[in-house]
Design a protein that fits this description.
Blueprint (H helix, E strand, L loop, with lengths): L6 H32 L7 H8 L16 H22 L2 H31 L5 H11 L21 H22 L10
Length: 193
């Protein structure tokens, strides 16, 4: 009734999953080192402080300021709680704890975005080079742009302050993930698996 899968195919799929996990972890840790040490996401703006500590209900509130910004205005206070209750007792530095949690969220969504690009490349039929192409696309996001006198954001994942990371960068990454999934017909990745 059921056909048995040859042992070599199982080992090949297992090896591919192991390489995928190594790829994702290395991508995540490269991002995490960048956003905690090289370009740390440190709060310095009054808008950052206000957004971290302004709690709201997780439903759209008609008539209030920004009634539909549920995701950033619930994720930022949640990040402050994680930093304050979990990391601060261990590190004894609240601002660094906030930096670590914010970097975690941004790196998580960047890794997810690059993984979806990798899966899309594999879906297109580029076998064997999907990780390399996805890694090159990842590094292209950090190519410096032209410097202006008014200031600039030197890479595509950058933002002017931490509040902009939650309000613009992370939702932009989620939108791109959704567009990539819809480009394949609602996330039907049958060619990949």
């Amino acid at each position: 009734m059921f056909k048995e899968c040859p042992k070599g195919i199982i080992q090949m799929k297992h090896r591919k999953k192991v390489f995928d996990i190594i790829f994702l972890l290395s991508l995540f840790f490269l991002c995490y080192i960048f956003f905690t040490n090289i370009h740390p996401l440190t709060i310095y703006d009054s808008d950052d402080w206000a957004q971290y500590f302004r709690y709201r209900n997780a439903i759209p509130i008609w008539g209030s300021f920004n009634p539909v910004k549920l995701f950033p205005e619930t994720l930022m206070p949640l990040s402050a709680d994680i930093a304050g209750y979990i990391l601060y007792p261990l590190l004894h530095d609240f601002i660094y704890s906030l930096t670590l949690v914010t970097a975690f969220w941004l790196c998580f969504f960047i890794t997810w975005y690059i993984y979806e690009i990798y899966r899309f490349i594999e879906y297109l039929g580029v076998d064997g080079y999907g990780r390399i192409i996805a890694f090159c696309i990842f590094f292209l996001h950090f190519v410096l742009f032209k410097i202006s006198d008014k200031g600039y954001i030197p890479y595509l994942f950058g933002a002017h302050n931490v509040s902009c990371v939650f309000h613009y960068s992370i939702p932009m990454l989620l939108n791109m993930i959704l567009v990539i999934r819809l480009a394949v017909g609602g996330g039907n990745w049958e060619k990949v698996n």
